[in-house]
Amino acid sequence: MPIDITKFSEAQLSELNRKIVARLRYLQEARMQQQMQSFRSATGCPSTLQGMIQRQASSPSATEKQSP
User: Fold this and answer.
1) What are 29-59's pLDDT values in tens digits?
2) Between these two residues, 52 and 28, which has the higher pLDDT value?
3) What is the spatial distance between Cα 65 and Cα 59, in angstroms, rounded to a whole number?
4) How far apart are CA 56 and CA 36, in angstroms?
């Protein structure tokens, strides 16, 4: 489906560009959501391990070690 863009004005081309960028962002976001969903369902990580990881990441000792 070729589009002859030589007949478009600058304003029309800018609007077309805005719509194309928005559509590309939407498609990228949808693809990322699908990949995250398939990753979550494929990991099979037990909830107790997830809780341990979350507690470790939020513990004060983890942040204290980063301070000089």
Assistant:
1) 999 998 888 876 655 555 555 565 666 666 5
2) 28
3) 11
4) 22
Q: Which residue has the tokens 């560009």?
A: 17
CA of 43: how far to CAs of 20, 38, 46, in Å? Answer: 35, 9, 9
HSE-up of residue 4 (Cα within 13 Å, Cβ side): 2
Domain ranges of the chain: 8-62
C-alpha span between 54 and 50 (Å, rounded): 6
Q: Are 18 and 11 in contact (CB under 8 A)?
A: no
DSSP state of 5: G
Instruction: Tell me which residue has tokens 């369902």.
Output: 41
Closest CA to 65 of 49, 54, 56, 52: 56
